[in-house]
Amino acid sequence: MSSTRSTLRDGVFQLAVVIILLLLTLAVVFPFLLTVTSSFADSKELLLKNVVLWPKHWTLDAYKFLLDNDQFVRSFRNAVVITVVGTAINMALSVLMAYGLAQPGVKGRTAVNFMVLFTMLFHGGMIPTYLVVNKLGLIDSYWSIWLVGAIAPFNMIVIRSFFQTLPKELKESARIDGCGEFKILWRIVLPVSMSMMVTFALFYAVANWNTYFQAILYLNDSDSYPLQVFMRQVLIVNPSELGLDVTDSGYTYTPAVRHAVILLAALPLLVVYPFMQKHFSKGMMVGSVKG
């Protein structure tokens, strides 16, 4: 009898888990599908119905409008530059710092580790950071974005922890063969750390692609704004009761255009992620063995 009750409880529990997962999946998938279909819908239909799951007339007008919009093309190009260069800087500095701090014989290692940990708990604040950036003459330069967030302390600590788990024999044998530290890092450590590298490269790339606050804080030239700033202009600036936005530049952003720009902003990451999924799944566990 108790076995039957236990089996029944297990069945009910599994059913509840399945239902919860289905609801969570629906909560994620439904807005995405709604955005996709609405981006191909006629703007008049969207204005009348607000929600369109299956447009009566499919059209590419919203995408044609965006691709002909110099402001969108420029902001998309800026976002690509910020992401590619920024991610390269993030990974280079994080890996170099993590590798150095992972070596047990480095002097001052404990103090530097403490300072890195301290920055995770306390921050100088927006105004002091802005004053430093301004004093360095980095205003209106992408370097203000790249250098301020060059190293994420948490990411660096996890990378350092992963390097500490690597067998010492690998580096010792390389040193016996006459390899220097940079050559050991490039030829031995990085090849066996590919999953970790891809994982944190993806983290940094997403952060750079979604750059918004630092852009409006440090960049005064609108021609240098990345895609997220342009998307805010499309979605928020001058909303009217009819769902049409007219900016100072004369651009009209219809509801279909709004959905299209959201989809295009997410598209690069959606395209890249499947190619990184294999390494990403393994890399999620890096650094968990030794802290």
UniProtKB/TrEMBL annotation:
Could you tell me where this protein is found in the cell? Cell membrane
> What is this entry's stated membrane topology?
Multi-pass membrane protein
Residue intervals passing through the bilayer: 12-34, 79-99, 111-131, 143-163, 184-207, 256-276
- GO term, biological process aspect, one: transmembrane transport
Gene3D superfamilies (alphabetical): MetI-like (1.10.3720.10)
> What coarse category fits the chief subcellular location reported for this protein?
membrane
Domain ABC transmembrane type-1 residues, every copy: 76-276
Provide this UniProt record's keywords sorted from A to Z.
Cell membrane, Membrane, Transmembrane, Transmembrane helix, Transport
State any GO CC term: plasma membrane
Family designation: Belongs to the binding-protein-dependent transport system permease family.
Q: This chain belongs to which protein, by name?
A: Carbohydrate ABC transporter permease
Native species: Cohnella zeiphila
Upper taxonomic lineage: Bacteria, Bacillati, Bacillota, Bacilli, Bacillales
